[in-house]
Amino acid sequence: MTEKWKTRTKLVHQGSRRSQYGEMAEAIFLTQGFAYPDAESAEARFIKTGEDEFIYARYGNPTTRTFEERIAALEGTEDAFATASGMAAVNGALTSMLRAGDHVVSSRALFGSCLYILEEILTRYGVKVTFVDGADLNQWRAAVTPGTKAVFFESMSNPTLELVDIAAVSEIAHAAGALVVVDNVFATPIFSRAVEQGADVVVYSTTKHIDGQGRALGGVICGTTEFIRKTVEPYMKHTGGSMSPFTSWIMLNGMATLDLRCRAMAESALKIARALEGEAKVKKVIYPGLESHPQHALAMAQMGSGGTLVTFEIEGGKEAAFRFQNALEIAKISNNLGDAKSIATHPATTTHQRLPDDQKARLGITPGLIRFSVGLEDAEDLIADLRGGLAAV
Prior knowledge:
By secondary structure, the protein is α/β, with parallel strands linked by helices. It is 40% helix and 15% strand. The strands form 2 sheets. It has a 7-stranded mixed β-sheet with strand order 1-7-6-5-4-2-3, sandwiched between helices. Helix 1 packs antiparallel against helix 3 and helix 13 packs across helix 15. The chain is globular and about 75 Å long. It starts with 6 loop residues before the first helix and ends with a helix.
């Protein structure tokens, strides 16, 4: 019956494990190993691990398994593997499936660390990588060939909020026999329907909305049971990128309020974006929930929401952007996102600092660009705070 549960019910109950004490809260199994009743049982478990059996926390743990089952049910995949960070999830999803000579096509509008994996790590070991403009389907069609092993993209790019048409790119990739790997952080598991739209593998940095409180690093890879258990798990358990049981417990607690938080943040984000459109010192507002966004129709069809982040460009470049940030009283200056606290980020000097200036320009990461992660504060207070920042420019 659990497959008939609606989102909020799954976020509270899916995958729950109870000890003999029948506790209401999910238990934290803070153990790295597990005891066996006899030597024969130990041998049998190493030969074949049963449905709810565990060997070592790097391979699996009851608390972590609960989180994996809950996020897989939410995302609509058969299985999931929880990782130590979002980047461990991106690296694990790609590196576990690729070998020297394989070909990957990726959108070029990516988080800096994702670009590092594609440009530096994979190519170092003989993987061929082709970059395309994610919104241009003709570029995807030209780049994806029958020999392409995988395509990779952020469903909504960091930080310029450009969308990739998941259904269209998936159709192109599948026609060539390639797997579709989607980094879905900005879309969130609440607004995402990536699997329904054709994605084979979905990765998240659970550090962001899933935790939602700025407490712990984490990531997760969602996909078919065959991909997760036969491709991802062997790589992750031997290279040590698994999520800790305590972090899994934190993520489970975050999931209980995930739907409520994301919807409240997105509602405020739309109000903020509309308010910023009328500000003289704001050169441009980028928010997929605005009719002015060039991909507004795609955002509504793909997510049904504009999401929880607003990006805007301030007149006056870096100096003006810094004055703006320094004048904020409610929003914090940080490089995280998806937090209960609103966060202002200057991508050109932080998250995308390592990119050459010409690449920043091509991606639209200008000196005056601010990425604003909308938190759970009152929207009117946030608008007043942003206007106070702009007054200081």
